[in-house]
Structures are given as structure tokens and as C-alpha cells.
Design brief:
39% of the residues lie in helices and 18% in strands. By secondary structure, it is of the alpha/beta class. Helix 3 packs antiparallel against helix 10 (196-204). The structure holds adenosine-5'-triphosphate (ATP) and magnesium ion.
Length: 209
């Protein structure tokens, strides 16, 4: 089974996420992509993050008609700080497959700050998607010494454990959750930035007002 795992805050999920996942799925012939909304401690005043189960429900509604997309409540159910390494090990064991962790270039730039970066690259492959406003950087700039464990490979890099970093250029869609939250707050339209069912749910529950 070819398994993609797409982590994020998804506050809320938008068409930038969904189109990106669709292009990656097609490009790498994934059987399934699992969206994993992360748990965030409720510092609402600080981070403006909506409660986990609401973000989960928004993702659920957005992907319900696409059988190859799935959502996992693993990180939100666990609560506490979300460590991607745990999620990836859990999904690897559940599906008996080496997961491909999907993330945008802006998120990949931060990877050296993640918990147990080195072990991450023994558990999963990484798919790095282009994103407007963020340039691709040399691996050494992003992950320092760990970069030496990788060799150049088709479309990216590979390490001794045969775990890959694959770069994918996707249709640039300059959409972000933070812009959507801002627009919502200002009472502006978010139509055509999120799926209709997401817009309806956000309105109904008055989530970003
Ligand atoms: P925020 O503005 O709140 O940070 P966001 O739009 O960046 O929200 P996240 O939930 O932070 O959304 O992103 C989850 C993952 O999706 C990250 O890896 C991010 O790089 C990627 N991503 C988000 N939007 C896009 C986009 N428009 N194009 C490509 N990748 C994206
Ligand atoms: Mg982000």
C-alpha cells in the first residue's frame, strides 16, 4: 500500500491543502492520504486556534466525498503536544506500510526543530511541496549535519535506510488558513477559498467570527 500522511493545524482546511493533496496523490500514485489535524493547547488568545474536534469535523466534511482521503483523530485524541514521530509510527503499524509524510516547503524549513528529527527519517519518507512565498533551500541549510546522511536521488534525496525526500512542484495557490481567519473575522467572503460545505459549517457554527 502506498500511504500518504498529511499533518497540519488545518485551522481551517482550505483548497490550497486539498488541491496540493490531490496533486501529490496523483503524482506519487498513493492509495490513500490520511489528514492528521494536530492538537494544539488552548491558548486561544495567543494562537487563535479552534478547538480540535471542530477542526477535525471541518476536515471530515471537506474530504467526505473522496474515498482515497481519510482523516485521523490520533493527535487530537492523544491531546498534549503532538509529535509527528509517534503519529507516523502509529500509522505505519496500523497500515503496515512506510508512510510518506506530506508537507509544504515552509513547514519543511522548520524540520530541525521537530522532536527527534533523525528518527523521523528512519520511519517515513518526506514529500516536500512547493508553496508560494517560500523558496527551496539546500538540505544542509535546513537540517545541518543530518543532510550528510542523504544522497542525491531522482526528484530529491535518499538515505542509507532507503527513506526518501521527494520534492514536488504543485500548482501555486497562495491560500493560507491565517488569511481565511482574518477575512472571516472582518466579515469578508471566503467563497472559493474553502469547499462549500466547509464555508457552510464555519458560518453555521460561527467559528471564525
Ligand atoms: P496558517 O496560515 O494558520 O499557518 P496554513 O495555510 O499554513 O495555515 P497549515 O495547517 O499550517 O495551513 O498547513 C499544513 C501543511 O500544509 C503545511 O505543511 C503547509 O506547508 C501546507 N500548506 C498549507 N497551505 C498550502 C498551500 N497553499 N500550498 C502548499 N502547501 C500548503
Ligand atoms: Mg502554516
Amino acid at each position: 500500500m502506498r500511504l500518504g500522511v498529511f499533518g497540519g493545524t488545518f485551522n481551517p482546511i482550505h483548497l490550497g491543502h486539498l488541491r496540493a493533496a490531490e496533486e501529490v496523490r496523483e503524482n506519487l500514485a498513493f492509495d490513500k492520504i490520511i489528514f492528521v489535524p494536530s492538537f494544539i493547547p488552548p491558548h486561544k488568545d495567543l494562537y487563535d486556534v479552534v478547538e480540535g474536534h471542530k477542526r477535525l469535523e471541518i476536515v471530515r466534511r471537506a474530504i467526505s466525498e473522496y474515498p482515497y482521503f481519510d482523516v485521523s483523530s490520533f493527535e487530537i485524541d492523544q491531546g498534549g503536544k503532538s509529535y509527528s514521530i509517534r503519529t507516523l509510527e502509529h500509522l505505519r503499524d496500523t497500515y503496515n506500510a512506510t508512510p510518506y509524510f506530506i508537507l509544504g516547503q515552509d513547514a519543511f524549513d522548520e524540520i530541525s526543530t521537530w522532536f527527534d528529527t533523525k528518527r523521523l527519517f528512519s520511519v517515513a519518507h518526506f514529500v516536500v511541496m512547493s508553496r508560494p512565498g517560500t523558496e527551496r533551500k539546500p538540505l544542509s541549510k535546513i537540517m545541518g549535519g543530518i543532510a550528510d546522511t542523504f544522497q542525491t536521488d531522482e526528484n530529491g534525496f535518499v538515505n542509507k535506510l532507503n527513506k526518501k525526500i521527494v520534492y514536488i512542484d504543485i500548482t501555486p495557490l497562495d491560500i493560507s488558513s491565517s488569511a481565511i481567519r482574518r477575512m472571516s473575522k472582518q466579515g469578508r467572503s471566503i467563497t472559493f477559498l474553502v469547499p462549500p460545505e466547509v464555508e457552510a459549517y464555519i458560518k453555521q457554527e460561527r467559528i471564525y467570527t
